[in-house]
Amino acid sequence: MASASEQGGITQSSPGLFDISLIVNGAPQAVRVPARRLLSDCLRHDLRLTGTHVGCEHGVCGACTVLVDGVSVRSCLMLAVTADGARITTVEGLTEPDGTLSAVQQAFADCHGLQCGFCTPGFLTTITAGLAENPDPSPDQAREIIGGNLCRCTGYQNIVQAVLRAAELRREAGLKREAGLTREAGLTPEAGP
Amino acid sequence: MLASTGPDGKVLAGGQSLVPLLNMRLATPEHIVDINRLTELAYVSVADGQVMIGALARHAQVLADPVVAAAQPLIAQALRLVAHPVIRNRGTTVGSIVHADPSGEMTAVLALLGGTVLLASTGGERSVSAEDFFLGPLESDVRPDELATQVSLPVLGARAGCAFAEVSRRNGDYAVCGVAAMVELDGGGGISRARAAYLSVAGTPLIADLTEACGAGAGADLAAAGRLAMARVSPGSDIHATAAYRRHLAGVLTERALAGALAHAKGRSDG
Ligand SMILES: Cc1cc2nc3c(=O)[nH]c(=O)nc-3n(C[C@H](O)[C@H](O)[C@H](O)COP(=O)(O)OP(=O)(O)OC[C@H]3O[C@@H](n4cnc5c(N)ncnc54)[C@H](O)[C@@H]3O)c2cc1C
Ligand code: FES
Ligand code: FES
Description:
- The complex is a heterodimer of chains A (193) and B (271).
- Helices cover 35% and strands 16% of the residues of chain A.
- Chain A is built from 5 helices and 6 strands.
- In chain A, β2 and β3 (27-34) form a beta hairpin.
- The model of chain A is unreliable at 1-7 and 186-193 (pLDDT under 50).
- Helix content of chain B is 36%, strand content 28%.
- Chain B has helices at residues 2-5, 18-23, 59-64, 66-71, 73-79, 85-90, 93-99, 105-113, 130-133, 211-214, 222-232, 243-270; strands spanning 9-12, 31-34, 44-47, 50-54, 116-121, 124-129, 134-136, 139-140, 147-154, 160-168, 175-185, 191-199, 206-209.
- A 5-stranded antiparallel sheet of chain B has the order 3-4-9-5-6. In chain B, strands 10-11-12-13 form a 4-stranded antiparallel sheet. In chain B, strands 1-2 form a two-stranded parallel ribbon.
- In chain B, α11 runs antiparallel to α12 (243-270).
- Chain B is globular.
- The termini of chain B are far apart.
- The model of chain B has no long low-confidence stretch (mean pLDDT 93).
- The complex binds flavin-adenine dinucleotide and FE2/S2 (inorganic) cluster (FES) (2 copies).
- Residues 54-57, 59-64, 74, 76 of chain A line the site of one FE2/S2 (inorganic) cluster.
- One FE2/S2 (inorganic) cluster binds at residues 114-119, 151-154 of chain A.
């Protein structure tokens, strides 16, 4: 599995400090961090991307989940230096450049999938990766996708609904895109599946 | 590298156990040797009757491998119970065995199957069998200058079946008690061998031979095996469960895992 991390050129600038480069939400970033800096702290403090929340700092709550080369990981359990060269997507990067909400974000709004919102960034990133892997989850599979994230407010029912709704929105968007493409290419769209 | 960092060096693999210990200040190693760039160790393969798992193979990668699932189904049965998908994306299977958590599913799998761990240092390589590998809770036979490079687990025999049963407080949590069972059938559909490994009831994975308790012939007495298991374990109490509850679970889960393993074995020899 080749990843962007092989391109990272990590250097030690002074004792205990390392120069790393990350691509965060599409933008290249050069950061100088101590060896022990967590990726979560690097994102929040060094890069001021405070959308990533930190609840427990030992892997249990899921609030800090981000995508590293497209894979969901706990940013509180990864050292920033380990992420050198990787493509990181935080909750800030889920929104389209024009501000349109992603399917998962829209589904949370539609289904009232949040109350205080503390847990929400972790759910959004986790579900984004979960639907990329399984675009058509059953209600049980939706629960499996979010099984590692804690929420103190909602009681989870609306979050499960939001996973299913997001899958629906993604399918609709996919169909529209396909229809658009086939029309552009001058082909007659075939009957749907 | 590990040779030069001395006794205060620690290997960092998936970080799903080590980084929480660092964050909680329970571990304060002087040096951390990150092996995440050794991508040549991110392999799983099956050859010569062994499933081989490299040090950088993540739980998720091992779990998704169809060749591994066919060769030794107990591995996937166990990995599905290890934490949550997001933890499994980073945590390594070899790391979880080296970590030697008495509640770790893969420690029980190594012990039940009689696998081996390959260790490398600048001084050379050595191979340690499962029975010698676990020294105590969170303590395995890995010296500070050694890297565990691979774990090997034998494939499942033709007339054998396996199953994993556990109870945890919430889906994905560490098990309050867990049982991995394996049975082998004789030609007539009776049990010729039955063994189980227990997690969360002792400092290291506990193995029980349940062949005699099950009895020979087709009408296996799984309840008797459950009673034997309850007599064999001597679990402790903690904030998650009392010793009596864990002992009770050991009995119930033994029956459940044996029934699953028996059905699995019958399905495989019929199929
Ligand atoms: C919320 C949560 C829930 C979890 N639930 C479970 C569960 O239910 N069951 C379960 O089994 N596990 C569970 N885990 C732990 C998870 O499986 C870890 O991935 C695993 O225990 C350690 O693997 P790692 O690669 O992350 O190792 P690390 O955290 O990187 O290392 C752990 C220890 O092993 C040493 N080590 C690791 N690899 C090597 C190597 N190749 N050579 C020498 N030393 C090495 C390290 O030095 C360290 O001491 C959970 C973790 C979290 C955060
Ligand atoms: S802050 Fe990382 S899992 Fe809770
Ligand atoms: S909305 Fe408050 S913790 Fe989930």
